[in-house]
Write a structure and sequence with these properties.
Shape: globular
Helix content: 25-40%
CATH architecture of the largest domain: 2-Layer Sandwich
Number of domains: 2
Radius of gyration: 18 Å
CATH class of the largest domain: Alpha Beta
Strand content: 25-35%
Distance between the termini: 48 Å
Number of helices: 7
Largest sheet: 8 strands, mixed
Number of strands: 15
CATH topology of the largest domain: Fructose-1,6-Bisphosphatase, Chain A, domain 1
Bound molecules: 2,5-anhydro-1,6-di-O-phosphono-D-glucitol, manganese (II) ion
Order of helices and strands: HHEEHEEEEEEEEEHEHEHEEH
Amino acid sequence: MMKLEEFLRLNAPEELGTVAMVVAKGSLAVSEAIPTKAGLLASVNPSGERQKAIDVFSNDEFAEALLGTGMVEEVASEEMQEPLEGKGDVHVAMDPLDGSSNVETNNPLGSIFGFYSKRLPASGRSLLGAMYVTYGSMLTITLSFGKGVHRFVAVRDEAGPSSFELSGLNLRLPEKPEVYGFGGSRKEWTPPVREFVDTLEGRGLRTRYCGTFVGDYNQVLSRGGIFAYPQFVNRPQGKLRVLYETAPMAFINEQAGGYASDGRRNVLDVEPRTLSEPSPAYIGSAEVVRDLERMVSAEGQN
Ligand code: AHG
Ligand code: MN
Ligand code: MN
């Protein structure tokens, strides 16, 4: 099987390959740290959310490795007020640990990275590539540099450290949408979102929701359908952050033949004015998400 290093050497621009490789190595250290760093800290992140030891550990692990490449001009993180400055050309935005509220229940967790060509914040149109780590029953890396979506799985060599082996090439969302997962609850959703969810059952889609964006999206990529963290009646701006979460995932999803919307337009066209700006997020099979967009925008809900 092809190893990640070899794949990156043959298929990624040199700087992005180096950056992707240090993220992959960092994910092994984060995965090992999860059991002992689940405690809640007193500190909060720029979105005002309490931090967990694993949020800070993963942030520091990835930031140090990324700056150490000498190819990264800045690292912006969901867990830091300001970006760290480095030298190089790649602008990295990361959610170092996605779904940290799920550590105790051992639900899948994730890490999300956007590799931008411009000073941050910037729209998803300036993404050169994106990758996400899924800490689940397997540790996998899913990535794209604009030429398809590819997946690698961590395999523990005898006695030696784990390495990443190619487990999926040119992944595409399946034709038939199968699953849906919407964050929040019916009473928090706006009427068009509630109506839209009702239509999904009518189309034979089944619920699949684990509470982590990466874990919930990862199954949509395999089974087709839609994940959403929608606008709420009392939270029209949504929860997921454009720069760190929805734009990098939208980049990958689009490369797999899908579409992602904030309810009005392609997530990749959203110009975040701040590093932590959130937006409603609807991502997955193009026909399903475009139907959602028609219903939500028609109601003038935005
Ligand atoms: P993070 O842990 O990086 O803050 O992300 C958590 C996000 C996302 O992973 C998930 O879809 C959503 O929060 C779940 O939100 P609720 O806990 O409010 O359902
Ligand atoms: Mn997150
Ligand atoms: Mn996070």
